[in-house]
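Field reference: "sequence" (input) and "structure" (output). Example, EG45-like domain containing protein:
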Amino acid sequence: MSSQRLLQRPPLFAGLFLIQLLFFYTSNGDVGTAAKYSPPYLPTVCYGDDSTKFPQNNLFAAAGDGIWDNGAACGRQYLVRCITSVEGSCMPDKAILVKVVDLALNLSQPSAGGSTIVLSLTAFEAITNSTSGSVNIEFQQ
């Protein structure tokens, strides 16, 4: 009987991830803006020309000045969701986890200057339906 009960329990990490997502949707993270940028993504301030530091799912970002923290943001991960009030601009109930790989001020062509975070094209498209250069976001480390 005890082995059947063990098989019915979800793995601990899955439970913790669900708790984190539930917490994210029921509490207020920080609010800011997200822009997008396109390749080439190298070199970066954090990792130079080392593409092995990028997540394989291409969900990464460049930190704006407000979260850069003098370089300590390199490698940090943020849960991000679109909250723009323009109807249809956001993917409903969609949050993504992005890894900081660069400094936004280092980018030559972000879609909007002064953003809190600049998302890779893949990350931006994962949370928005928007063709605009930036959206309002809620984010949490």
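Confidence is low (pLDDT under 50) at residues 1-7, 12-16.
The chain has one domain: 28-140.
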